[in-house]
Amino acid sequence: MYKAFFKRIIDFAAALILLFIFLPFFILIALVIKFDSKGPVFFRQFRGGRGGKYFTMLKFRSMAQNENAEKKGFEPGSLARVTRSGKILRKTKLDELPQLLNVLKGDMSLVGPRPEVKPYIELYPEKWTEILSVRPGITDPASIKFRNEEEILARSGNPEKEYRDTVLPLKLAIYKNYVDSISFSADAKILFLTIFAVILNRNTAS
Question: How many domains does the chain fold into?
Fold first, then answer.
């Protein structure tokens, strides 16, 4: 009942309230981004959504503008283009705040498997078909476990291979476990652990 009905109602209500609360931060962050570097306030990118339908996921822009970035997709371990304000936004996860708009629209949930770009979905299509039976989310257990994923990949000799062959399969296993056991108490725990991880800047999932 929660997964089929109440989860969406809670997502919508919570996103609406949080957007109202964080509106001053949206304005402040937007101004900082515009003063810090040239380019739009938001970064938009197509990600895989529920039922395999792609949608435009929003983030506050944290990297120097690159016309090919959105077409190329996710760049594992890429830190070279991160702006001064972007470093703070990424560290605090404030760059994810615009995804509350995705939640409000119905493309995402507060808690759910993180949406991925097409090339990495096509690597494991059968697993993603099962995982994307639910809406992707802003946070999930994998997001907590791989809290410092960028730093981990940046230390690798081949970040893209490390992500494709090691990190992504681990994430998929975590995503599947989440999808198989969705509940209100589990989602509440994940949200609490996410806040805890961001505040302490540490991994909290086992």
Answer: 1
What pTM was computed for the model? 0.89
Cβ contacts of 62 within 8 Å, gap of 6 or more? 43, 82, 83, 85, 86, 87, 89, 90, 95
Distance between CA atoms of residues 86 and 106, nearest Å: 27
Mean of pLDDT values over 101-125: 97
How far apart (Å, rounded) are the C-alpha atoms in residues 146 and 202? 9
* Mean pLDDT, range 23-27, rounded to an integer: 94
Tell whether 150 is covered by a domain: yes
- Residue 98 covered by a domain: yes
Percent of the chain clearing pLDDT 90 (strictly above): 69
- Domain limits at 110? 2-200
